[in-house]
Specification:
168 residues; 32% strand; alpha/beta; three-stranded antiparallel β-sheet; 3 helices; three-stranded parallel β-sheet
Length: 168
């Protein structure tokens, strides 16, 4: 099992809901593995005036997550959501060791497949997971809804807060 299929966010939400509602199709219990890769830090971002198009136009302050606390929270939330829909589904929670993949999760993806570190693949095989929910950071342009418009400049990724004191 060198590759694990990956779903888009919308697709995995529909698939997870369908699986949770359907329940186990055979005598063996359905096992969903949940892998979280969001929890290494929390960023507080504020816009700043700069010149030049290649510069990051945001001021960033980073708070390191102690012992993967954000991942633990996310894994627990997903396990509770699955259990609330169908208690017969077994969830295995996998917390990855910190790596460069936390900052560049897109390196894992190749089209519709995802390559996971060997230790994670070993754990997936050990628990005989039929499905994997992979939670990663998403990077995009800042588009914070504010009144009847969107505010924000630059890019953001992962967990954090965007603080714009100009638009109070």
């Amino acid at each position: 099992m060198n590759r694990v299929h990956c779903f888009s966010r919308r697709t995995w939400l529909h698939a997870a809901a369908a699986l949770a509602l359907a329940g186990p199709a055979t005598a063996a219990p359905l096992t969903i593995a949940v892998v979280s890769m969001i929890g290494d830090k929390l960023e507080i971002i504020a816009p700043q005036v700069t010149t030049g198009s290649s510069l990051d136009r945001n001021f960033r302050t980073t708070l390191e997550g102690k012992s993967g606390a954000f991942d633990v929270f996310m894994l627990d939330a997903v396990a509770q959501a699955v259990a609330a829909v169908n208690r017969e589904i077994s969830t295995t929670l996998i917390k990855m060791s910190p790596s460069k993949l936390y900052d560049e999760p897109e390196r894992m993806f190749d089209g519709k497949q995802v390559g996971l570190p060997g230790a994670v693949v070993d754990e997936l095989e050990r628990v005989k997971a039929q499905y994997v929910i992979l939670i990663t950071k998403f990077r995009a342009d800042v588009r914070v809804p504010f009144r009847s418009e969107f505010i924000g400049i630059g890019k953001v990724r992962g967990l954090g807060f965007y603080v714009d004191l100009e638009n109070r």
